[in-house]
Amino acid sequence: MASSVDQLISQIKDLELPAALAVLIGQKVLNLSQKGMEKIKQLIKDKQNEGKYAFVPDKEEANKLSQFCGNPEYQQIHQLIPNYWGNNLLLTGLLIRDYQEEGGKKNNQRIALIKKQIWQRPNGKHLIKVVDLPTTPVFSVILGFLYDLKTSGYTTQRRRHFYKLWFCIPTGLFLFYR
Amino acid sequence: MVATSAGREVRFAKLSKKETVLLLSAFDYKVDSEGFVLTPSGAKILSEEIPNEFLTLDTMAITPGSLNIIDGTPASISKFICERRCSVNGK
What we know:
The complex is a heterodimer. Chain A is mainly α. In chain A, about 65% of the residues lie in helices and about 0% in strands. Chain A is built from 10 helices and 1 strand, in the order αααβααααααα. The longest helix of chain A has 16 residues, at about 85-100. Chain B is of the alpha+beta class. Chain B has helices at about 15-25, 75-90, and strands at about 10-15, 30, 35-40, 60-65, 70. In chain B, strands 2-3 form a two-stranded antiparallel ribbon. In chain B, strands 4-5 form a two-stranded antiparallel sheet. At the A-B interface, helix 2, helix 3, strand 1, helix 4 and helix 6 of A face strand 1, helix 1, strand 4 and helix 2 of B. Strand 1 (about 55) of chain A pairs parallel with strand 1 (about 10-15) of chain B.
């Protein structure tokens, strides 16, 4: 057993964590909490602790969300309303907008599921409004409005106050704006 | 495979169920017959997103560093990305 453990260690020690796990599975190692697996267990823990990977259910979707950090609208809102709790939901909103633009049954089903998950959360009705914002033409209007406030000398706190007011407006009224 | 910030790059990856169970076992976490993730003390992990639901292999994500299990929903991953971005940028 000791030699096979040492062989496995030599096989995986220089590999990235996902590849190391794949090799172990290939070698029928399915559980590291068993006796005799301590060395491999520590090696896997060390690799996880390097902090290089986030393991997610949908890699493509997570990569999209990450890319939306570079979206000019998202960056603008981040500058205008820094550290606002709802900013992370705007990334989800941008993802939904992307799915809407792509269209198709699969994307529509995914949008419905994402919204359902948010709706189920405490204060879900309000959270949905934040998530929906990037999917409406009002988003660019709000960005322009907040930018005007900034250039007029309004503080971040005052801008945040006006921004929060938008979410108190009934959703239906957005349809009549402009 | 995209960085959330300069300097501390994090890559997103998807593991098979067997690989996820193996990684969890390195930290003494287990998965029960229904797919629920169990902590080393044997407790199910409550979802932070959906009230009264527990995380399963299909609904969880593992963030970098020492094992940290979160919801695998887009909203939860968005939060992780934003927090990481802010912590790295020192905001």
